[in-house]
Specification:
Layout (H helix, E strand, L loop, with lengths): L17 H26 L6 H8 L3 H7 L3 H22 L7 H17 L2 H13 L6 H14 L10 H21 L5 H15 L4
Length: 206
């Protein structure tokens, strides 16, 4: 696999080539993220060695570091990709459950099923995010997705609305349930049952 020259500088494109460069950058970034996800799905975070990711993606190591300065930045990008898929799924097929708690649990179980198809990857992502000092918006995005499911896509809640806080609390419950499943201490059915109880208690004011 031929690596890209390390002297390539994506920022030097002329105005006439800017559109093509941008597409090239996006494609290169996607290749890197997909390569990292594939490695993590087989061997967890430990398998996501930066040099190995670069080789699998067909880019130079220096290019990889320009896109992702650390392994944790790369892990966060993989998580964001998974969340993109979840958001797209929810947009195409909105939750059909009648109650706000039921709709949020439906979204969370979609996320659960998606992640548990690749347990090694799921374990790598959850564990790394819990230990990461890299700032991300992933918690905010998941909470916003649940908020739209609970209150409706057109709901405009103030930033200090306490319902935002309880939705964030529900995402924390889900994270712990994911850990229990990944450790073999709970089945998806058991976790769903507990999520339904938590959602019913937390979201009773929606």
């Amino acid at each position: 696999m031929t690596a890209e020259p390390t002297t390539t500088d994506d920022s030097t494109a002329g105005a006439g080539r800017q559109g093509g460069r941008s597409r090239s950058q996006l494609q290169r970034r996607r290749r890197i993220v997909q390569a990292a996800a594939a490695l993590a799905s087989r061997g967890g975070v430990e398998a996501m060695q930066m040099r190995t990711v670069a080789e699998r993606a067909g880019v130079a190591l220096g290019t990889l570091y320009r896109y992702f300065p650390s392994k944790m930045d790369l892990v966060v990008a993989v998580v964001s990709e998974e969340l993109d898929l979840l958001e797209g799924s929810v947009e195409r097929r909105p939750p059909r459950t009648d109650s706000p708690p039921g709709r949020t649990v439906e979204v969370l179980m979609r996320a659960t099923r998606g992640l548990m198809r690749e347990p090694e990857l799921a374990d790598a992502l959850i564990r790394s995010l819990l230990l990461s000092d890299v700032r991300t918006d992933i918690g905010d995005r998941l909470a916003a997705l649940l908020l739209r499911a609970a209150a409706g896509p057109d709901a405009d809640l103030p930033e200090d609305d306490p319902r935002r806080i309880v939705v964030r609390a529900l995402t924390s419950v889900w994270t712990m349930e994911m850990i229990e499943m990944l450790r073999g201490r709970a089945t998806p059915e058991e976790s769903q049952s507990r999520l339904e109880i938590a959602a019913a208690r937390l979201l009773h004011d929606f």
